[in-house]
Amino acid sequence: MNYYAAIEAGGTKFNCALISQDKQIIKQTRIPTTIPEQTLDRVIEFFKELQKQYTISSLGLACFGPINLDSSSIQYGNITTTPKPGWADFPISRQLAKQLNLPVFFDSDVNGAILGEYLWGAAKHSKVAVYVTIGTGFGGGIIANGQILHGLHHPEMGHMLIPTTIEQGHCPFHGSCIEGLASGTSMAKIWQEPAEKLIDRHPAWQLQSEHIARFCYNLLVTLAPEKIILGGGVMQNPALLNMTIENVQKIMAGYLTLGKSMNEIIVEPGLAQLSGLFGALALAQGKGSHSIC
Ligand code: ZN
User: For domain 122-268, which CATH number applies: 3.30.70.1350, 3.20.20.150, 3.30.379.10, 3.30.420.40?
Assistant: First the structure.
């Protein structure tokens, strides 16, 4: 039996697990994302303890970003321009590889999540699919013909500009990009209340569904995905998915015949809360692209 270390590294917590090749989670822990040294010390301690008992083959890291995936760059494997204090330019992949003496396969958190969903979840058999997380941040990963999509960079679709009636969004770089309007962090700033505390009939949700719908519509006409999977903490509001689908249909206005209903295309994750962690497992197994330290 092979064992893999999997890390879904998020802006709020690091979800770490030892997973067997048959996808059994042997041990799992969640470590708060504080400053890099403190967080990494705890992550390393968790896996070093497990290495006493298990032979771990490799580590998969699905990491919040932006992360540098250009193997010719001296910043390869680093988190790059995050506004998160202490994490900008942090060499996370190299640190983990060195301290744990393991090959580290890495990609962005959402690229990991779409890979997990493609192999084992809602995007199985899709030629093109997108995983979107709407939580602390807002981001998405794309799979096309079995490959995670990378070009100059990994996609940064959370920074897509969309029309809005809000005067000023909260992205420190662009103001009213979709992350600046619709991430959990931005919602809390706009409405002066955390998203999970906003009651169902609060006007925030209607506006939220309109913003996400414009974003999904842009994906539909750009990438023609068979699936757009909407995950993350903000999507835990059970009414939001259907409100978003209704708004996408309104914007589409019958323009495209897709051969599928919108609620077959825009869906919740098939792996529930485990898309990112299983994505990290898939990366560790070399099923992603070949970004390795
Ligand atoms: Zn932005």
Answer: 3.30.420.40
For the chain, domain boundaries: 3-109+274-292, 122-268
Contact between 47 and 5 (Cβ < 8 Å) = yes
Q: How far is ligand 1, taken at its centre, from the CA of residue 177, in Å?
A: 5
From 211, 191, 210, select the one nearest 202 (Cα to Cα): 191
Distance 160 CA to ligand 1 centre (A): 7
pLDDT for position 85: 87
Strand 128-134 versus strand 104-108 pairing type: unpaired
Tokens coding 85: 């204090």
Which of residues 102 and 82 earns the better pLDDT score?
102
The rounded Å distance from CA 180 to ligand 1 centre is: 6
In percent, how much of the chain has pLDDT > 90? Answer: 87
- Spacing, Cα 169 to ligand 1 middle (Å): 9
Q: Are 113 and 131 in contact (CB under 8 A)?
A: yes
Compute the residue count for the chain: 293
Pick the CATH number of 3-109+274-292 from 3.90.420.10, 3.30.420.40, 2.40.50.140, 3.40.50.300: 3.30.420.40
Q: Report the pLDDT value the prediction gives residue 257, as an integer from 0 to 100.
A: 83
